[in-house]
Automatic annotation (TrEMBL):
Main location class: membrane
Topology class, membrane: Multi-pass membrane protein
Keywords noted in UniProt: Cell inner membrane, Cell membrane, Membrane, Transmembrane, Transmembrane helix, Transport
Annotated TRAP C4-dicarboxylate transport system permease DctM subunit domain residues: 11-427
Taxonomic source organism: Belnapia rosea
Protein name: TRAP transporter large permease protein
Record's GO cellular component terms: plasma membrane
Length: 437
């Protein structure tokens, strides 16, 4: 059986199961198990167990549940609402200031939780009513929350980067450091867009009325809400950057620190602990099972010679090695409209990264480019996850069409950032390789 026919049958069965409503893990794993059985017989199924066990015993994966617990506990400690109140006092007098403050809060929250859903839902509950009550345009309000929430997959500690490092044999710490500068580029672009648009069309992001503005002493007092999050970020990321802890060990520090934060704020209750553990169990199991299923799928596809097929297909693109790189980005953008980022990563990374390495591209740079691309996937219709997270907490007068329209300019900013990082690789590689000298 030719590799082309195997590709059609394997991906065809996977997509058919997805369209039929079968969850990703069963669609991916089921098609791989069935394919293994019919290609090599029942004895080959032993390889499925071996490959799954190999993935399950990876030390890197230990960081995932602890970072998720860290985010869940911080979400229940009320840090996000305190941060937004502080930003509202400092930036409310500026046109577009509430939307910019939302981006800043999402940036800090992203450095605490490692996933996008938590920041999107939390800001949807905290920031959206405030912006709409202050007559902000729906597009600016919704778009800033959706785009800011997506920073959770890029700014470390990122769960997606942890899994990416595992599957591409790339240093998670280096990816984290590259994600810091890449995330700051996106934050800058989002901020500039909001401020420029609000300056040109003041009705889109009006300043807070004078009687609602905080005095300077009130602003100083509000800064107390930043202390705990900043200290926790410095401990977690600082320990990784300094080489004092691995990402898994830093995740343990983060989980402990988040519990202390909740205790200090008087919100460490048995209910909060139980809910945080329940969310951690549910999300960790989801991620782990997707990892196992995708490991089986990619092992099967690689064993039948997929790497050569992909290499031959990409070599047909014009533009040499840069044409191949752009082709990879386009494939990721298209897949991001329909599939889960972790699934996309595990399907494509084992095929694309070795090819990119042979062409001389830096794996850390390519890894961060991939994550930026997947950040776009959280906003691109029809299945951008942040769009549905936001809809679940938005008021009844906010329609799905409103949310779709709101993300357009922010997706354009993400695409601009992706292009800038491809043209100027130092935007990603400067920090990791400077600190590693």
């Amino acid at each position: 059986m030719s590799i082309e026919l195997i590709t059609v049958l394997l991906f065809g069965s996977f997509l058919l199961l997805m369209v039929a409503g079968v969850p990703l893990v069963f669609s991916l794993g089921g098609s791989a198990v069935i394919g293994t059985y019919f290609l090599w017989g029942p004895d080959a199924l032993y390889a499925v167990g071996i490959r799954t066990f190999s993935s399950a015993t990876s030390f890197v994966l230990l960081a995932i549940p602890m970072f998720i617990f860290m985010g869940a506990m911080l979400e229940r400690s009320g840090i996000a609402s305190d941060l937004y109140a502080m930003m509202q006092k400092w930036l409310g007098a500026v046109r577009g200031g509430l939307a910019v403050g939302t981006i800043f809060v999402c940036t800090i929250f992203a450095a605490l939780v490692g996933v996008s859903g938590a920041a999107t839902v939390t800001m949807g509950l905290v920031a959206l009513p405030s912006m709409l009550n202050h007559n902000y345009d729906k597009g600016i309000s919704l778009g800033s929350i959706a785009a800011g929430g997506a920073l959770g997959v890029l700014i470390p500690p990122s769960v997606l980067m942890i899994v990416l490092g595992l599957y591409t044999n790339t240093s998670v710490g280096m990816l984290f450091m590259g994600g810091i500068t890449a995330g700051l580029v996106l934050v800058a672009l989002f901020t500039i867009y909001i401020l420029v648009v609000s300056a040109i069309w003041p009705h889109l992001g009006p300043a807070v009325p004078v009687h609602e503005r905080a005095s300077f002493p009130e602003k100083l007092v509000a800064l107390r809400s930043v202390i705990l999050p900043i200290v926790l970020v410095m401990v977690v990321l600082g320990s990784i950057i300094a080489g004092a802890a691995t990402p898994s060990e830093a995740a343990g520090l983060g989980a402990f620190g988040a519990t202390l934060c909740a205790l200090v704020k008087g919100r460490l209750t048995w209910t909060a602990l139980y809910e945080s553990c329940k969310i951690t169990l549910r999300l960790s199991c989801m991620v782990m099972w997707i990892v196992f299923a995708a490991a089986i799928f990619t092992s099967l596809y690689a064993a039948v010679g997929a790497d050569q097929l992909v290499r031959d297909a990409l070599s047909l693109l014009p533009g040499g090695k840069w044409g191949v790189l752009i082709g990879m980005q386009v494939i990721w953008i298209i897949m991001g409209c329909f599939l889960d980022p972790i699934g996309i990563m595990i399907l494509t990374a084992p095929l694309f990264f070795p090819i990119a390495a042979q062409l001389g591209f830096d794996p850390v740079w390519l890894g961060v480019l991939f994550v930026v691309n997947m950040e776009m996937a959280f906003l691109t219709p029809p299945f951008g996850f942040n769009l549905f997270y936001l809809r679940s907490v938005a008021p009844a007068n906010v329609t799905m069409a409103d949310i779709y329209r709101s993300v357009g300019p922010f997706v354009a900013m993400q695409a601009l950032a992706l292009a800038l990082m491809m043209i100027f690789p130092g935007l990603i590689t400067w920090l990791p390789y400077t600190l590693m000298r």
